[in-house]
Amino acid sequence: MVALFDTGAVHTYIQRRLTEGVPRRCILKKFKVALVAKEIEVNEFCLIHGRIEGLDSDTKAVPVDEIGKINGKTLDVLIGALTMEEWEIIPNPKDATLDLSGLRRREFMEF
Length: 111
Known about the structure:
The model has no long low-confidence stretch (mean pLDDT 91). Helices cover 10% and strands 50% of the residues. The chain starts with a strand and ends in a 6-residue tail after the last helix. It has 111 residues and is mostly beta strands.
C-alpha cells in the first residue's frame, strides 16, 4: 500500500475499498474534515491492522472514497498524528525516513 505519514492530519484515513468486510463503529457526534480539497462528513471508524517495515500495528481509521495522490501515486492510507503518537512513530521529512524505535519497543509476547 501507498501511505503518507501526515503530522498535519489528526485522524488516519483509509480507502473504503480496502475495508470491505471490516466491522465499523458509528460515532455519536459526526464531524466534518477537509480532505482532497473537499469537505467530508465523518460518521464512522474502523479498526485496521497493518505493518510498517514489518512491524505490526493497529489503529482506528476513517474509511473514505478518496485520499489523493502523491508523486503520481494514489494514496491508500493517510496516517495521522493520533496514530503516530499512539505508536511513537516519528517522521523525518529531511530524508523521508521513519523513526520506528517506539514501535519496536512495543513488541512483546503475551502469555
